[in-house]
Design a protein that fits this description.
Blueprint (H helix, E strand, L loop, with lengths): L1 H5 L2 E8 L4 E6 L11 E8 L1 H7 E5 L9 E3 L2 H13 L3 E11 L12 H4 L7 E9 L7
Parallel strand pairs: 4-7
Antiparallel strand pairs: 1-2, 2-3, 3-6, 4-5, 6-7
Subcellular location: Cell membrane
Pfam family, one: Cation_ATPase
Keywords: Cell membrane, Membrane
């Protein structure tokens, strides 16, 4: 609850099975180490799609803008395959910062906010989340 209050959602891209991700744009929390004039954007979704959108990965598990290295796509693809082979549902977890003037508070953004960036690869891969998600009974 404290984090929700400290980093409220400014805008979002709702999840859709068509594009297989969702994104939220937040006021930066104290823990985000975010430069002035920036929002923090979090994107989660199908890991193969997330990897293709990432330019960086968090170095040593710390996701601040000053602690990035070029993404090792092969590493992430291998980890996704390992987790999936155990029957787990895998999500890619990404983040970046964006200029505050690039979105307006309350915006319902479309998938092009994530997919249609002129810079192409623009996200930072923070990690993967693997969960047991058995099929629902029909």
């Amino acid at each position: 609850e404290e984090l929700k209050n400290d980093a409220p959602i400014v805008a979002e891209v709702p999840f859709s099975s068509d594009y297989k991700f969702m994104a939220t744009v937040h006021e930066p929390a104290k823990v985000d180490n975010c430069p002035d004039g920036k929002y923090v954007c979090f994107v989660k979704g199908a890991p193969d799609r997330m990897v293709k959108l990432c330019k960086y990965q968090a170095k040593g598990g710390v996701a601040g803008d000053e602690n990035l290295e070029d993404i090792n796509e092969n590493y992430w693809i291998e980890q996704i395959a390992i987790l999936s082979s155990h029957g787990l549902r895998v999500l890619g977890l990404c983040r970046t910062t964006i200029d505050k003037d690039s979105v307006k508070a309350g915006d319902q953004l479309g998938p092009e906010f994530v997919n249609g960036r002129p810079e192409g690869k623009w996200l930072t891969m923070v990690g993967l989340c693997a969960i047991m998600d058995p099929p629902r009974p029909e």
